Amino acid sequence: MFENLTERLERSFKILKGEGRITEINVAETLKDIRKALLDADVNYKIAKQFTDDVKQKALGMNVLTAIKPGQLLTKLVHDELATLMGGKAADVNLSGNPTVILIAGLQGSGKTTFTAKLANHLRSKKGKNPLLVAGDVYRPAAIDQLKVLAQQINVPVFSIDGSQDPVNIAREGIKQAKQSGRDLVIIDTAGRLAIDEQMMQEVEAIKKATSPNEILFVVDSMTGQDAVNTAKEFNDRLNFDGVVLTKLDGDTRGGAALSIRTVVDKPIKFVSMGEKIDTLDVFHPQRMADRILGMGDIVSLVERAQEQYDAEQAKTLQKKILKNKFDFNDFMQQLEQLKKMGNLKDLASMIPGMGKALKDIDIDDNAFKGIEAIIKSMTPAERENPALLNGSRRKRIAEGSGTSIVEVNRLMKQFDDMRKMMKMFSGSGAKNMARMMAQRPRRM
């Protein structure tokens, strides 16, 4: 996500490297390069020009700050302007009403149906809502079945009317069903088309009029760049939607939609969606996205994802086991499961400052843990609880059972043993002992 833009911007800042101060000449050269980078990322030309003009005006006005290097100052200004361009701060979803009604709109293939299920899962887990999904796409083959399959994964009901070709009535009856069954959230998935047409617009307008939604979200495929922005403008002119959802941000996207859409439609980006997994939905934070675009990582989001998987009681139990050197392969598997739930491995690693660039050409397979899991699952319960039992013959049996080699089993055993020692060292009194040892080390003269 945004890798090419990040790389181009880093190159642009190097123009100022070694300069003693900002001048109109050197800042103009840098910003010309930044404008080209934005245009290559498919950002609207007028927006890119206004962006660089604003940065230039502020940069020249701050020339008195001699304590800050020109490159650092311009990086800060570009960061702040990027965040402002994308909305400045995160925007909430309107959850008023009983039930709250959220209408989902967009073109076919933008990811509306998948997002509908993701949003239900997100609002249930984060806001305590009790959702009902309404299958309003009566045209696309298997659209209703797709929604039901996704909803089944999160144990959320779907309202549909067999054989009906009237999405307005389906939406209206869905809200009635929610009231009768005590559901406090209705999310209506509507039909899309391959391109905007009058029939489509009239239909979604009719659904809006019949349901009076508290929130209308426009779902857009971020990989379509400026086409996405133009589509958003046409939908907004007809629906006056409340926010934008960017999908497929894990794809080969240049970032133009994320950087342009807020200015064009004057509506906030509320969510970003990556991948097909039901839990890969994030609230959009402009400041954090600006951090990531400039290669600064996103530690806050990484910590938040970790906290979502954090279990206080489990952590206490694990701490005791580590202190007693009883950490075993069952615990190890538990930690792997938590890590996998946090999301795509490459995306997680890119949230660490400096890692995005380092991983640019490295393929991190989400199935990287499968071999490890196969080895551990080939162990007996006793072997998992007591790794000391794993002698040569047992390791050979485990290698054959897991479809791996003795070398791979031995490597895992070595890594596990090293990790166990490290965990012991940094837990409780072990950390204090290490600090004491470090303090007592002879100093070099």
List the helices and strands and how they pair.
Blueprint lengths: L2 H11 L10 H17 L4 H17 L8 H16 L14 E6 L6 H16 L3 E6 L6 H11 L4 E2 L7 H15 L3 E6 L7 H14 L3 E7 L4 H14 L3 E5 L8 H10 L3 E5 L7 E3 L2 H8 L5 H10 L3 H12 L5 H13 L3 H6 L4 H4 L11 H8 L3 H5 L6 H11 L3 H20 L3 H12 L5
Parallel strand pairs: 1-4, 1-5, 2-3, 2-4, 5-6, 6-7
Antiparallel strand pairs: 7-8
Helix pairs in contact: 1-2, 2-3, 3-4, 4-11, 5-6, 7-8, 9-10, 17-19, 19-20
Describe this structure in words.
This protein is of the alpha/beta class. It folds into three domains: 3-85, SRP54, nucleotide-binding domain (Four Helix Bundle (Hemerythrin (Met), subunit A), Up-down Bundle); 100-296, P-loop containing nucleotide triphosphate hydrolases (Rossmann fold), CATH 3.40.50.300; 308-439, Signal recognition particle, SRP54 subunit, M-domain (434 Repressor (Amino-terminal Domain), Orthogonal Bundle), CATH 1.10.260.30. It has 21 helices and eight strands. The chain has helices spanning 3-13, 24-40, 45-61, 70-85, 112-127, 143-153, 167-181, 198-211, 226-239, 256-265, 286-293, 299-308, 312-323, 329-341, 345-350, 355-358, 370-377, 381-385, 392-402, 406-425, 429-440, and strands at 100-105, 131-136, 158-159, 185-190, 215-221, 243-247, 269-273, 281-283. Helix 10 (256-265) links the parallel strand 6 (243-247) and strand 7 (269-273). Helix 7 (167-181) runs parallel beside helix 8 and helix 17 (370-377) crosses helix 19. The protein is flat, with a radius of gyration of 26 Å.
